[in-house]
Amino acid sequence: MSVTIKDLKQAIDQLFPNPKNITEEAIQRACINRHYYLIYSTMLTVIRDNFPQYDMSRDGSFKNTGSHNRVFLVFEEIAELTDSKTAKMLSLQFTNFLTKRHKADYKLDETFSSGEYAQCLRYADRIPELAQALVDEQA
What we know:
mainly alpha; 72% helix
């Protein structure tokens, strides 16, 4: 069985029905993890469907730089080639979200602040909007 982006979104909505009201750090970290992977999967779909010139495989456009980093590199290259501020903002927000997700997942001895949590929720909302804006401007 496989799942869709819509399935992932529904699962997140069921697991975390009111993410802005979560105050427990461990649950905030878990929420960010799920939101990040929804965004990652969404960006892979955006790239596949709208920027097919990019081969996201290990042997593809950016070789073995890490699957998550390749998403950042696609949008960074689009920004450089087209001078798109939207692509630049998308690349920066995606890599910032990845960095914060790493902290939430792996740096358990460091506090994950409520500000970082709120920023990640904003990234989860804003990144798909930026991706759609980029698709629209490149059309």
